[in-house]
Amino acid sequence: YRASLDEYLDIGMISIGAHTIILPACCFLSQDYPIEKLKPDNYGKITKLFMSAARLLNDTQSYQKEQIDGKMNMVLLHLDENPNAKIDGSVAYVKGILEEKTKEFLEIVLMDDGPEEMPKSCKHFHLSCMKVFHMFFNSTNLFDSEEELLNDIKKAIYIPPDLDSQMSDLYIPPPPEKEEILQISARWDVNTTQHFLHGIGKESAV
């Protein structure tokens, strides 16, 4: 028996474990968080959308590895149901579902008066976690390589940071030039001025 896409997502969004991170934290964020929403049958819509998005993000990045391991994946399941499809088309299909669920998720988060009865702080925490999952799964997963993992461990513990190379990439603007202040000094020569004006007066009189 092979599960349908909907059946797989209903199970896969739980096995990804995103709800185990976000729900306990919501209880600490607000005392008004509904306790009944901690039960699997009563998860809020925003939580379910977050869980589904986390699963879809994972599946669009890990389908190659899971294909080798013989594990189920949303991309591989769509490819199996559509023999004429190509892997790129199946990835695009799953990303389309992800985009729809993300839009629906954002609508609930950003609406002040909506069907979701949840404190605003908990909604924003859902949004922050969604951003983290998008950032994590949309970046290159270097931990699939043991060599890259070992290098990261060495950088974190043993290898000191190369500050010189990091600083060389930074643009440091030159110090501003000192402005030259033009000083103008003037001296009022009363005798010379009077003599000059007196001469003009004589010429005018002539």
TrEMBL record:
UniProt keyword terms in alphabetical order: Magnesium
Superkingdom of origin organism: Eukaryota
GO biological process: diterpenoid biosynthetic process
SUPFAM superfamilies in UniProt: Terpenoid synthases
InterPro entries (alphabetical): Isoprenoid_synthase_dom_sf, Terpene_synthase-like
Keyword Cell division attributed: no
Record carries keyword Transmembrane helix: no
Protein name (record): (E,E)-geranyllinalool synthase
Species of provenance: Coffea canephora (Robusta coffee)
Taxonomic placement: Eukaryota, Viridiplantae, Streptophyta, Embryophyta, Tracheophyta
